[in-house]
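A common beginner's mistake is to predict each chain separately and then try to dock the pieces by hand. The better habit, illustrated here, is to supply every component at once so that their relative placement is modeled jointly.
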Amino acid sequence: MGSAAAQIPTSFGHELRACRRCRLVKTYDQFRESGCENCPFFNMDADHERVVDCTTPNFTGDSKLRIHIYISTVRG
Ligand SMILES: [Zn+2]
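With all components supplied together, the output reads:
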C-alpha cells in the first residue's frame, strides 16, 4: 500500500495495453482487431487470447525506465 497507482481507464474493451515485445500501446480492442503492427507474428487478430498473452496492462513502470534512459543518454 501507499504506492501511487497510475490512473488508467480500465473499462473492458478499452483497456490500454502495451505489446510485450515492442511496447506499442493501444487499446485491447485495437490489438484484437488489428494485432501489433510491429509484431504480426503474434497473430493477435487471429486468436484473441493471444492479445492477453502478448500484451500487458502494466507498462507504466517500463515507460518510466525508458524515459530515464533517454534522459541519461541526452545528458551523457
Ligand atoms: Zn509489438
